[in-house]
Amino acid sequence: MDLLRQRRRHPGLSEISARPAHQEAASVGLHQAPGEELLRGPPQHHPRTDREFLRAEHLHRPLPVPRIIRYCGTGITSMPNVSRVILDSLWAEGASAFFMVPGKQINAYMSNYRDGEHADHPRISPVISAAEGGAAMMADGYARASERFGVVIALDGPGVANTVGGISTACADRSPVVLLSGHVPTGFDAHDALQDVTPTGLDTASVLRPLTSTSLQVRSAAHPIRYFDITLRKLVEQPTRPVYLSYAADVLFSETSDAPVRMTTLSASRLTCDPVDLGRVIDTVNASSSVAVLVGAQANKKAVRRVLTRLSEDHDILVGSTLDAKGAFTESHPNSVGVFGYSGNERAHELFLRNGPETVLLIGCRPSQWNTNGWAGVSGAENVIEVTSEVKDIGRFSPGSQTLLCDELTFLEHWEASMTEGGFPGNAALRERVGQVRLHDDIPDGGDALNPAHAVKCLNSWLKDRICVADSGNHRSFATHYWTTDIDAGFYSTTNMGMMGWAFGAAVGISFARDEPCLVITGDGCTLMQGMEIQTAVRYRRNIIFAIFDNSSYGATHMNNIKNIPELSALPGHDWVKFAESMGATGFRVTSISELDTVAQKIKDSDGVHVLHLVVDRDAPTPAGSYRTNLRAFEASRTGAR
What we know:
Blueprint: E1 7-8, E2 16-17, H1 21-25, H2 48-59, E3 68-69, E4 76-77, H3 82-92, E5 97-100, H4 107-110, E6 125-128, H5 132-146, E7 150-155, H6 158-172, E8 177-183, H7 204-208, E9 215-218, H8 224-235, E10 243-248, H9 249-253, H10 275-286, E11 291-295, H11 302-315, E12 318-322, E13 336-340, H12 346-354, E14 359-363, E15 383-388, E16 402-405, H13 408-418, H14 427-434, H15 452-463, E17 467-470, H16 474-482, E18 491-493, H17 502-514, E19 518-523, H18 524-530, H19 534-539, E20 544-550, H20 555-560, H21 576-582, E21 586-590, H22 593-603, E22 609-615, H23 625-639
Parallel strand pairs: 5-6, 5-7, 7-8, 8-10, 9-10, 11-12, 11-14, 12-13, 14-15, 15-16, 17-18, 17-19, 19-20, 20-22, 21-22
Antiparallel strand pairs: 1-2, 3-4
Helix pairs in contact: 5-6, 5-17, 11-13, 15-16, 15-22
């Protein structure tokens, strides 16, 4: 298992405990504590050789001895305090970094990173964001990309309040984010203390309860790690959701001999299924002349993607993805039909709605408005079978379908083992038939203005090896439709809450989890909300390109306010190049497709943070025509409106 620590030798060093493989890949630039020379800036972008040196210098150290400064300042103790136990446990569970903004009541966490005592630092590394909201979105991005969980640490009260938008987004998309905090010391409650968040004050635990699977405040040092254990256990419950755990400041500094529970990994299969039901479904599928698969976010795990790709190639199976699972099956693969759902691809809609196989398998599909393309369901197949590990979703994506409650990986492995050569004789003809349908909508001529669709296709042609992180707005519609993923799990977006600016923080978190270059497709409205996290990307030397689609408006709202006064949706012009340069990034202003082609070619192989200010046509129609038609029909069926 990748979380089991293995022994290895490093030239010039004694035998040490190596970090898990996923952390090895995600660790470049992590182990510089705030205040070290590396982070003083604005830093210059350094070459990969420097990053490799940092990897050798900082990652191959012996596991530090947990020596912690007491809260009262009486010196060093041999017993760890609560904050250190938590940080070491998070590392052991697979988190290589946490995201935070400093604050007094969380000093216990920060005191583990003493200047001049780097050998004693926890292995998990702090990343300081511009704002707590950005830190929460970084933790969300990290959770999605690592397929484990992400961690944000914030001062309770104003800091935690700033995370609510990010936590609500993570909740809506079932992303397991750990929100840790510190609050007023014991004895300060019921005294009108500054930033009192206990039940005698703001009571943030109650505020966060609807957004989390557990929301706890700890005011006693009697058994503080038990609360952390409860929090960890909740992370593996279905559906996965954020968790919140806040300690009184003095409790965080208190010594403890308790050891936390070990949850190992969130990626392991946890739900087995009834063998009779499993056999029945597999028999139905294998008796079909043709079959196609629609994969959803519940199944978007590395092991599932690997098996699904193998099945598709061995048995000529067409595969589409729901909107929230775009990239779960690499879209440059010849058996991909693209996205089914909001702003999806016509080929996928043809396969799953009109001209389908004998059997459609829905694997881990979540029944949201966008995923179902406006509640269109799936039709055109004799058998529609939903397989999911989530009880909440079963039977809801396509009402009337057959259902199987089963871990998605378990199902695919049993299905693969049951297959014989020569199965699904109709698949080849199905592929040929569906292949005649266009994948992308035609792009209308918009005159001299830069059409966002052309911009996305141009970026895709030069930057296809990057992870695409799409923000909320009209630009997301164009990115969903016209961006073709060329790498495994190459696309991330928030698809239920629609938090504007999410992609700025999420891309930073994703880059720490995977250490791969990213491209953010965002808008000017999103940049106004969360664009300051560009400075975090620069500070930590991330390899991210931010493409700001500037239509001088809140684009989606503009489309709905055509007949209203412009001030309701229009935005003033901004110079995003100067904005980027003020934070140490390089910036380029682009007004035409030829300029974009030149700039994208120039920066495609360069590291560092780049900002593209794309001046685009605000009136370009989004490729979501079928969704709008379905949504109007659904509304009419519920309200009688025409």
